[in-house]
């Protein structure tokens, strides 16, 4: 498919929803043909190798039969694509523009740093926004509970300590060292949480704090650990630091070293031979030609459509739409569904991929399933086996 940056573009899809009337909010309008027009924004990123075929994805999703359930009254969805903001200032300006243009909801396809700038601006603008790549992106900018206008397709990263502990136990090594950057608060915190979970699971584990960019200190520390007989490591270093650790370890011993990456893996990490990572899987991901992005876009559109289907003429506004999206408990996807917590605005059950870097590709092994309990705790159980490989993460 053709790859490009994101010009402003508009796609139209006639779906089935409600009859226009005098109670329409300012965000929607009744065209002359009698259909209600609902503007939806797509925020996508075209930099740092994250180019996506946004036009093909949108057309694929809209032609896949997604429509609100239980209604047969026509309406029209106008989809406009915008470049995802690169700073908080850009995000504020963008969402002010979306407000002025009467946008009813937004879907954010951006990843990593571009996605981070969206939630605060979306919440302030009171525009319901679904984040497609969102494990490490908070949707509660100013409070413990999520913003009423923010939603995420990923479980938050609090499941990782238990998942890493189960994976480490399954790999057979009894002695483990957790690597953390003492100059990075997130690295230190995540490393300590993983160390605690691994210890509680019966593993012999200790945490090793390394200076951020000092390769000499890293090599010496790893050498001492290997000399003491440790062959299991969990890295909460940067991706580049993890690549360097993998290189050092492979040169230190002929024995097989297990090196796990503690955070959500970036694409470049598949070049670090033997590194093992955990990543959330979307339903439908194996069955769609567009893979992960198309699966996430399909899930987000269906979630939005399920919310729209419950609105009526008298409550066609962004606040009512946000409440309707939050109330969607299950998103039907193929033969299964994505179960959503109305309180958390995130999935409460997801499949996890276990990926190992081999010859510049991710090779998938038997994964896990995570389920969030009533008290907020995560339960991690073995999942189904999927043998696949790909060029990227």
The helicity comes to 25-40%
**Largest sheet report:** 6 strands, mixed
For this structure, the quaternary state is: single chain
Order of helices and strands: EEHEHEHHEEHEHEHEHEEHHEEEEEEE
Q: What is the mean predicted local confidence, pLDDT? A: 82
The gross shape turns out to be elongated
Low-confidence stretches: 1-28, 47-52, 67-73, 385-389
Tally of strands? 18
- Helix/strand class: alpha/beta
In which order are the strands of the major sheet placed? 1-3-2-4-5-6
Indicate the radius of gyration in whole angstroms: 22 Å
Strand % is 25-35%
The separation of the N and C termini measures: 18 Å
Total of helices: 10
Helices and strands in order:
Blueprint: E1 9-17, E2 36-44, H1 54-62, E3 73-83, H2 88-100, E4 105-108, H3 112-116, H4 118-125, E5 129-131, E6 150-152, H5 160-170, E7 175-181, H6 185-200, E8 204-210, H7 215-227, E9 232-236, H8 239-252, E10 258-261, E11 276-281, H9 291-308, H10 318-326, E12 330-333, E13 336-341, E14 346-347, E15 349-358, E16 361-372, E17 378-382, E18 389-390
Parallel strand pairs: 2-3, 2-4, 4-5, 5-6, 7-8, 7-9, 9-10
Antiparallel strand pairs: 1-3, 11-15, 12-13, 13-14, 15-16, 16-17, 16-18
Q: How is this structure best described in words?
A:
With 393 residues, this protein is α/β, with parallel strands linked by helices. It has ten helices and 18 strands. The chain has helices at 54-62, 88-100, 112-116, 118-125, 160-170, 185-200, 215-227, 239-252, 291-308, 318-326; strands at residues 9-17, 36-44, 73-83, 105-108, 129-131, 150-152, 175-181, 204-210, 232-236, 258-261, 276-281, 330-333, 336-341, 346-347, 349-358, 361-372, 378-382, 389-390. It has a six-stranded mixed beta sheet. Strands 11, 15, 16, 17 and 18 form a five-stranded antiparallel beta sheet that branches. The protein is elongated.
């Amino acid at each position: 498919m053709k790859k490009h940056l994101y010009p402003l573009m508009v796609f139209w899809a006639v779906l089935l929803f409600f009859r226009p009337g005098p109670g329409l909010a300012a965000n929607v309008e009744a065209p002359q043909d009698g259909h209600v027009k609902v503007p939806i924004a797509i925020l996508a990123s075209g930099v740092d190798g994250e180019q996506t075929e946004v036009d093909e994805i949108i057309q694929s999703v809209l032609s896949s039969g997604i429509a609100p359930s239980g209604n047969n009254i026509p309406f029209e969805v106008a989809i406009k694509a915008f470049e995802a903001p690169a700073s908080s200032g850009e995000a504020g300006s963008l969402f002010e523009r979306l407000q002025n243009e009467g946008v009813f909801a937004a879907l954010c396809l951006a990843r990593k740093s571009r996605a981070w700038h969206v939630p605060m601006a979306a919440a302030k603008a009171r525009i319901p926004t679904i984040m497609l790549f969102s494990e490490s992106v908070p949707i509660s900018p100013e409070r413990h509970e999520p913003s009423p206008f923010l939603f995420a397709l990923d479980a938050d990263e609090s499941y990782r300590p238990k998942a890493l502990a189960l994976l480490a136990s399954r790999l057979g090594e009894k002695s483990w060292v957790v690597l953390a950057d003492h100059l990075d608060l997130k690295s230190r915190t995540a490393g300590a949480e993983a160390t605690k979970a691994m210890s509680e699971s019966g593993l012999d584990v200790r945490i090793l704090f390394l200076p951020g960019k000092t390769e000499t200190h890293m090599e010496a520390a790893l050498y001492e650990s290997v000399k003491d007989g440790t062959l299991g490591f969990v890295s909460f270093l940067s991706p580049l630091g993890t690549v360097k650790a993998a290189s050092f370890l492979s040169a230190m011993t002929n024995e097989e070293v297990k090196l796990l990456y503690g955070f959500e893996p970036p694409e470049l990490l598949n070049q670090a031979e033997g590194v093992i990572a955990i990543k959330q899987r979307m339903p439908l991901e194996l069955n769609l030609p567009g893979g992960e992005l198309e699966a996430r876009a399909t899930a987000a559109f269906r979630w939005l459509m399920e919310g729209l289907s419950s609105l009526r003429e008298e409550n066609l506004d962004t606040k009512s739409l946000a409440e309707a999206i939050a109330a969607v408990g299950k998103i039907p996807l193929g033969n299964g569904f994505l179960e959503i917590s109305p309180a958390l605005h995130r999935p409460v059950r997801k499949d996890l991929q276990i990926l190992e870097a081999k010859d510049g590709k991710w090779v998938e092994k038997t994964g896990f399933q995570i389920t969030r309990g009533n008290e907020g705790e995560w339960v991690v159980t073995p999942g189904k086996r999927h043998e696949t490989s790909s060029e990227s993460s």
